[in-house]
Fold this sequence. Notes:
By secondary structure, the chain is an alpha+beta fold. 33% of the residues lie in helices and 27% in strands. The chain has 2 domains: 2-47 and 213-255, NAD(P)-binding Rossmann-like Domain (Rossmann fold, 3-Layer(aba) Sandwich); 48-207, Dihydrodipicolinate Reductase, domain 2, CATH 3.30.360. The chain has helices at 2-11, 26-39, 53-64, 97-113, 209-223, 231-250, and strands spanning 16-19, 43-46, 70-80, 119-126, 133-141, 146-152, 154-165, 169-172, 184-189, 200-204, 254-255. Strands 10-9-8-7-3-6-5-4-11 form a 9-stranded mixed sheet. Strands 1-2 form a two-stranded parallel sheet. The protein is globular.
Amino acid sequence: MHVEWTVRAARAGKHVLCEKPIALDADIAETLTSVQRETGKLICEAFMIRYHPQWRLAREWVQSGRIGDLVSVQTAFSYFNRDAANIRNRKDVGGGALYDIGCYAVNTSRYLFGREPVRAVALIERDPDFGTDRLTSGLLDFGGAHLTFTCSTQAVPFQRVNALGTKGRIEIEIPFNAPADRPCRIFLDDGSILGGGAAEETTFPIVDQYHLQSEAFSRAVRTGSEVENGPEIAVGNMRVIDALFRSAASGGWERIARRGAQP
């Protein structure tokens, strides 16, 4: 229902910060780019992680060459939930691991690489009762660089991101559910000591990434500036997710359309 109510709100004169994933496929999400042009209202997909300073520093390190050339992003994100009434376990409304948490791996890899992947391959294990994907692993080809990820709704709670470069590595300890009541840490490691012994730790003061997101959206509304994760970037995420689902069905690589704004 995200697209339906975003369209209604925009046409009623409201700016919209919409929960992720913004749609169930790219074709439906494309509606929002035209509606934003039609109404002049801001539409933003709510990936709160993009506002946390740990992600902004990680991207700065990548762009400045602190780890050399970024060649691989490795992401794990999981939790355990078999509640049949939980929306995450309802296939009819977009439940499952890829829509719920795999979308973070897709969004953040595009954020770090600064470009779109060209093809995708995936393997999915579905829950026999719910029909949702309870375990999804995927590989995105960014043209000479890769994202590899696993997400699960029925595994031990865990999350971690490693970004591997030709000269160093960035590790984000709590990349997605960054707590609002204690500091977060990321690490920069040149690999000179086995086991991460040379890693430099950066600790961030306590922040609420949802608060930062709402402040940024409010600022964009008041100033007319662009939002961080607008419709074209959101559509790009859905194109990748569509390709991953197609790959799981076909058993092979699937091409990803390359259009829209830079991620």
